[in-house]
Specification:
The chain is α+β, with helices and mostly antiparallel strands. The chain has 2 domains: 86 residues, no CATH class; 134 residues, Protein Transport Mog1p, Chain A (3-Layer(aba) Sandwich), CATH 3.40.1000. The longest helix has 25 residues. It starts with a helix and ends with a helix.
Length: 258
């Protein structure tokens, strides 16, 4: 009964918002879902199953050995939030809990994708003379636990490239936090390839590799990270100036981070 009240309250609330035509921003929607859905519904009602939501299918050659020469490929669109909320309510009322869980997960995934697109749309079109490479824009979500949301954009010009990644990625965040909290020492030795830096009032790590160039990693909020990777940048001042073109506070607000 408790589970029914939790689920019904959330679904009917969302349906009411949609039926009355109220507009709700992605960030406030995410914040509410963080408070109620993540803790109460996903973990309590439906369990802690964390399967990847981004489907990846590998096609194999047929036994006949025929070679494909035509086809339009696949189209990728974010799940429709309103449709999946309605499907979840209908499935739950019919006692089809597996379908209800799937639809709730799809609705949350759709919200995450919308948030990611909003963040991407807020990125600058050019950075220090480098232009956006539109085909490399990417928003992806790998789970429903409000982690694994990744936003990427690549800028290029002449022999330089800047790749900016923002997301709630546990692996990326863990590596940087370990360095920041390990009491890493300062040294003037020439082989030092990492150092702590201050970036927009946040502590971060700046790394250099002679093959891949500079990488600036800056944790922010509770579980998010900003990463700028620069190829063929002259020095650390140049990569820091390029990274400074991005508004972390705005990104943090879109994520609903504190």
């Amino acid at each position: 009964m408790k589970h029914y009240r939790i689920f019904t309250g959330l679904v009917l609330g969302l349906v009411l918002i949609l039926l009355t035509g109220q507009q709700i921003t992605a960030q406030s929607f995410l914040k509410k879902l963080k408070q109620r859905a993540e803790d109460e519904i996903i973990n309590d009602v439906f369990g802690e199953e964390k399967k990847t939501e981004s489907a990846s299918f590998q096609q194999t050659s047929s036994a006949s050995g025929a070679k494909n020469t035509r086809g339009g490929g696949l189209t990728h669109t974010a799940p429709d939030v309103a449709e999946n909320i309605n499907n979840a309510e209908s499935a739950f009322n019919q006692g089809s809990y597996t379908e209800a869980r799937y639809s709730v997960r799809q609705a949350i995934l759709g919200i995450e994708m919308e948030i990611g697109q909003n963040v991407l749309d807020g990125f600058p079109e050019t950075v220090k003379g480098l232009k956006t490479v539109p085909e490399n824009d990417n928003v992806s979500s790998m789970s429903i636990g409000f982690v694994g949301l990744i936003i990427e954009r690549v800028y290029s010009g002449n022999d330089q490239q800047l790749k900016v990644t923002v997301g709630n990625d546990a692996a990326m965040l863990s590596a940087v936090n370990i360095y920041l909290t390990s009491g890493a020492y300062a040294s003037t030795a020439e082989d030092q390839n990492h150092k702590q830096v201050k970036f927009k009032d946040y502590r971060g790590v700046l790394a250099y590799d002679e093959y891949s160039g500079y990488t600036l990693s800056v944790p922010f909020g509770q579980s998010s990270i900003f990463v700028a990777e620069g190829v063929n940048f002259e020095n650390e001042q140049e990569i820091m100036a390029a990274a400074n073109e991005f508004d972390i506070e705005k990104i943090k607000k879109e994520f609903g981070e504190q």
